[in-house]
Amino acid sequence: MKINLLTVGKTTNPQMIKLQDEYQNRLKFYIPFESIVIPELKNTKKLSIPEQKEKEADMILKQIDNADDLVLLDDKGKQLTSVGFSEFIQKKMNAGNKRTVFVVGGPYGFSQRVYDRANGLLSLSTMTFSHQMVRLIFLEQLYRAMTIIKGEPYHHE
Fold first, then answer.
1. Does pTM surpass 0.85?
2. Per-residue confidence band for 156, with pLDDT thresholds at 50, 70 and 90
């Protein structure tokens, strides 16, 4: 199985980029992983929030194949512990999916079309984080999940 992290907008903070790169490099020893960035919309002042969400939906759904398992990182999603997330990932791996795509949406979330296509919703916290932080937190938790699956001592319990 390959895991993709699809994000709307790029990370601009150099320290965040460095940390994200570190976790992406660690992940390559465990699972095929790719980060895909969709550019932020331009001239959004002329668009309503629903219009912005629909334009982002067009760009997100272009990146998704019919066979992909699509999981949205969304504040309405299910919350898991780190061990629970590792079990979630293990089930995805056991299911034989070729690709699972996790998506971080734009500043206003997802359009209904993206929710309708999704196979699941996950929440990283009830707190609100910047989109740049969400990427880093997700990458660290995915790395932690892989070390839990492999029985390595990164996670202490």
1. yes
2. confident
How many residues are there in the chain?
157
The fold adopted by the segment(s) 2-149 is Alpha/beta knot (3.40.1280)
Look up residue 12 and give its two tokens. Answer: 């601009």
What pLDDT, in 10s, does the model give residues 21-36?
999 999 999 999 999 9
DSSP character string of 47-89? S-HHHHHHHHHHHHHHT--TT-EEEEEEEEEEE--HHHHHHHH
Helix ranges (H only) for the chain are 14-27, 49-62, 82-94, 112-117, 131-149
Each domain of the chain, given as residue ranges in start order, spans: 2-149
